[in-house]
Write a structure and sequence with these properties.
- It is a single chain.
- The chain is α+β, with helices and mostly antiparallel strands.
- It has one domain (3-99).
- 40% of the residues lie in helices and 26% in strands.
- The chain has a four-stranded mixed sheet with strand order 1-3-2-4, with helices on both faces.
- A hairpin with a 2-residue loop joins strand 2 and strand 3 (36-47).
- Helix 2 runs antiparallel to helix 3 (74-87).
- The longest helix is centred in the C-terminal third of the chain and has 14 residues, at 74-87.
Length: 104
């Protein structure tokens, strides 16, 4: 999975940002096609300590609002869950990323 937002940063700069409150997050979106609904994760986004995380998830929320509700029964369920995750600032996966990086 691609990490968006660390382009041009060294490993030490990323760790410094994390120490100041930066984090890695994943957003969700839902797309429904009549009787089938799909809930998918976004790429991983690095949110710097001085940035808000809700704004980066707005595009995924818009996709969900437009395309997610139509599948019965999972469309509305997945859509509400995706919107909740996105408006909560995304799913924080910082610990997963850091533990994976240490294992390499």
């Amino acid at each position: 999975m691609k990490i968006v937002g660390i382009e041009g940063m060294t490993d030490q700069e990323v760790m410094d940002e994390i120490q100041k409150g930066g984090k890695f997050v994943i957003y969700q979106y839902c797309i429904s096609i009549i009787i089938m609904s799909f809930r998918q994760p976004s790429n991983i986004y690095f949110i710097k300590s001085d940035q808000g995380s809700v704004g980066k998830g707005l595009g995924f929320s818009l996709i969900t609002l437009l395309l997610g509700w139509w599948g019965i029964p999972w469309g509305p369920i997945y859509s509400i869950g995706s919107l909740y995750t996105n408006f909560s600032g995304g799913k924080n996966v910082t610990n997963d990323i850091l533990s994976g990086a240490q294992g390499e």
